[in-house]
Specification:
two-stranded antiparallel sheet, alpha+beta
Length: about 120
């Protein structure tokens, strides 16, 4: 049963400026995510897509950005590149028994993500 859906969109240029600051990277992205971004040459579209994914996941849980660190939502990638979500902390507690489905896309100017939270019962 679907528990929630979330969607987010952001201008890539905003993220391009933000990822120049180490403090932003550490506040938003886990170590594994930062390693992935480093492999991608810190491509702004990849960072923007992952940021959108975190926001979309928050919306599925009806939680806000102030309900815990964004690093509690970890956006990883399977070998083929498909994004997967790993939750930590309060967000993991809130979504226990659920699975998150995630899709990320981007154009030259915008990144978007759609997330669906499904109860596995």
């Amino acid at each position: 049963m679907i528990e929630g859906i979330g969607i987010d969109n952001i201008e890539i240029e905003r993220v391009k400026k933000a990822i120049e600051r180490e403090a932003f990277l550490k506040r938003i992205f886990t170590e594994k995510e930062r390693l992935y971004l480093a492999e991608k040459g810190f491509a702004a579209q990849s960072a923007a897509g992952m940021f959108c994914a975190k926001e979309a996941v928050l919306k599925t849980m009806r939680m806000g950005i102030t309900d815990g660190p964004l690093t509690d939502i970890e956006v990883l990638h399977e070998e083929g590149g498909a994004p997967v979500v790993k939750l930590h902390g309060k967000r993991a507690d809130r979504s226990r028994g659920c699975k998150v489905f995630l899709s990320i896309t981007h154009t030259r100017d915008y990144a978007s993500a759609l997330a669906v939270l499904e109860r596995e019962d």
